[in-house]
């Protein structure tokens, strides 16, 4: 697990990121905390098997436009319990939506399925969410087999025994105007992760020779059913000021980044979800078309980063242990 200076989500002013990781159980969670009164937020869910919390409030027609944290977590639906710990941490610091009698922290969350790796009876809970908040900082995000990416796997079309380790990745870019656009991704895809520049599998299903095969081709040629233990979760963010509608559009366009590097993606067996945050910490405006296009680019980079930064865990080999073994077909 390594870090990139100023090339991760924390390059966006107003955001901090923290992890809780249980490597023995192969699970964890990652929290993105929004400073002050929160960040304008949007969401777009493309996978057909999502596990989410407080996503309806992000619909453009609904009242609230700012949230105080986003939680990405393992543990399938059980992992949503971790959001309670994030709420408690925020409440203790008097952060949240002012309701007169108290402040109510607004925490949106989404889960991925990692119960097939490590221990299925250990899942992120409220204590884990609280611990992730305690660990949050503006330091460059630690990537790899950590946080929500701890138990993540990719390329499960031939089963877990042929999968490769997924993980958590991040990327950021500073535009000529000075605005930062960044992404964070927990990659637990059923499909393969593809390097679009070379059209090569960088992590995915492994064939008999130990090298990669193409999941999409197997699904086509062998009529295999995609396994149901998937989902890629992401946060894209900018320090520009966006409206709630624009943040929603940014999340929508960012899904193009997933489609560029994960094949297949957005299936009935995925819960692919992208959150978008705009902190407004920069005084520079940003056209929403640029925001969405750049978000798609950095999210694609974050997905590839996730699998390249991961290390082997719970018997699942990392991409660094597979590369060069066999030829992708």
Describe the structure.
The protein has helices at residues 82-92, 126-135, 215-222, 244-261, 288-309, 319-322; strands at residues 15-22, 27-34, 39-45, 52-53, 66-67, 69-73, 97-98, 103-104, 107-111, 153-154, 164-165, 167-174, 180-187, 192-195, 200-203, 232-238, 262-263, 273-278. The chain starts with 14 loop residues before the first strand and ends in a 7-residue tail after the last helix. Helix 1 (82-92) packs across helix 2 (126-135). A hairpin with a 5-residue loop joins strand 12 and strand 13. It contains 6 helices and 18 strands. The strands form 5 sheets. It has a 6-stranded mixed sheet, covered by helices on one side. The chain has a 5-stranded mixed sheet with strand order 1-2-6-9-4. A 3-stranded antiparallel sheet has the order 15-14-17. The protein has one domain (9-315): L-amino peptidase D-ALA esterase/amidase (4-Layer Sandwich), CATH 3.60.70.12. The radius of gyration is 18 Å and the shape is globular. The longest helix has 22 residues, at 288-309. Residues 325-329 have low confidence and may be disordered. The relative contact order is 0.21. The chain is α+β, with helices and mostly antiparallel strands and 329 residues long.
